[in-house]
Structures are given as structure tokens and as C-alpha cells.
Amino acid sequence: MFKKSADFSRETRTAMRDGNGSVQLEHIWKPGEDLGSPVRMYSRLILNPGCSIGWHVHQNEEEIFYILRGNALLNDNGSEVHAVPGDSIVTRSGEGHSVACEGSDTLEILAVIIRYQ
Predict the structure, then answer these.
(1) What angle do CA 13, 69, 39 make, to 5 degrees?
(2) Given Cys at both, which of 10, 19, 53, 83 links 72, Cβ 3.0 to 4.6 Å?
(3) Are 107 and 85 in contact (CB under 8 A)?
(4) 8-115 falls under which CATH superfamily?
(5) Is the pLDDT of residue 6 over 90?
(6) What 3-state class would DSSP assign to 25?
(7) Per-residue pLDDT, 102
């Protein structure tokens, strides 16, 4: 199945997971509609400077972030790391993370959440 970027659904979440500012979500593939797999999210996240997604723990799923653009400050299960394009993080069930846009460039992340079966 092919999908044009103009057909992706988009939403803006303010204070996502008690983070700062707003996050734009571009849902590339939607579970149930486009996907039959245990993928719960396959989206591009866009955070402007100063914006963040607050700390949260995943249960019975894992989330993968792949940095596409910009600089990120990640809290990887209690350890802070700086990430640049090409870097990736996986947060497994029972683990937590947060992400903030660092610097003056927009942060773009490919985010995939997979449910455990």
C-alpha cells in the first residue's frame, strides 16, 4: 500500500505527557486502519525549540525513537543522553523516557510503538 504524505493525518498535542509546549504528530500509518500488526504508532514527531515530551513509562509495549533532524536531550530510563540525526533509542516495557528539543533547530523523530502480544 502506498500513501502520499498529504494523506497522513496530523494532530497537535499540548503538554504531551506533561512536557513543555506542543508536539506535532504526523501519523504515517494508523493501527487498525492501515496496519494489521501489533504496531500502535508509526509517526513523525515534530518538536520546536523548547518543546518536550515528559517522562513516562511504557507497559506491555516498546517504543523506538529514530532522530531524523535536530538535537535531542533524551532521558533514557534515568540517564540523560544527547542525540543527533541517525541516533536511536528503544524503551522497553517497564522502562521510561522523555525527550526535549535542544538548540535552535526543529527536532524531528520517527516514533514506532509496538505492543507485546
Answers:
(1) 55
(2) 83
(3) no
(4) Jelly Rolls (2.60.120.10)
(5) yes
(6) strand
(7) 97
